[in-house]
Amino acid sequence: MSSRSLAVSCAALYLVVSAVVGVALLATPQPVPPAVAVSDGPTSVAERNAGEPPMPPTPPRPPNGFQRVTGPQMVQTVIPLGWRVARGGAPGAMRATDPADGGRFVAFGGAPAPDQDLATTRVTNESKLAARTDDYERIDLIRATYAGHPAVEWEYQHDDGSGPQHVRALFWQVDDVEYFIVASGPVEHWQRMQPIYDQMVANSRP
Q: Distances from the Cα of 186 to the Cαs of 18, 112, 160, 191, in angstroms?
């Protein structure tokens, strides 16, 4: 992956650094311009993606084909077996890349929460991302809850310099820490990334 695409992705991640995605795509997502208000949704991210009640405090064994990883601020999640983990380029961020396709990666991390709430931070970061990347298009930016914590889910497409990318991210806050998970891949191959994102959502802590 090019240094420009890494920089853009990590900035979107941790300029962003919040985790939040959530609630629901109860209707077919419709692209909307950046800086539009964040939507509200009634369901929890964990329930929507895992199809189960709120997550137990003890992480389950990782699903087949995945390994459990621990990142900054003791965030835990799962990533595909064999994916390489490295620093994400910003404080509090880690990244794991598909060794067979550098355009497919996930990121996870945590950092002290800013003074703004999750949604306000996301809208601010969205405006900055849209100004510095090509062909930005919001799919969804939604308030939610994640394991009982306030959360925001952000899904969008953009061109990071290597071609059109589809990105989906969850930001959530526990006490004074913001956590996040992100999945990114080429638009035409997003159907291969969506299940990975779903497993990260279903298996992340705290």
A: 23, 31, 10, 10
Look up residue 54 and give its two tokens: 């709120």
Residue 130's DSSP bridge partners are none
Taking CA atoms, 200 is separated from 47, 121, 150, 183, in Å, by 13, 22, 17, 9
Cα dist from 153 to 20, 67, 84, 87, 165, whole Å: 4, 23, 25, 23, 17
pLDDT digits (tens, 9 = 90+) for 34-66: 445 566 653 456 555 444 445 555 667 899 999
pLDDT one-digit tens code per residue, 102-124:
899 999 999 999 998 999 999 99
**Which two three-digit tokens encode residue 33?**
């311009």
Give me the half-sphere count of Cα atoms (radius 13 Å) on the Cβ side of residue 154: 38
Side-chain half-sphere CA neighbours of 63 within 13 A? 15
Give me the numbers of helices (H) and strands (E) for the chain, helices first please. Answer: 4, 9
Structure tokens at 80: 């595909």
Residue whose structure tokens are 């380029």: 89
pTM for the model stands at 0.77
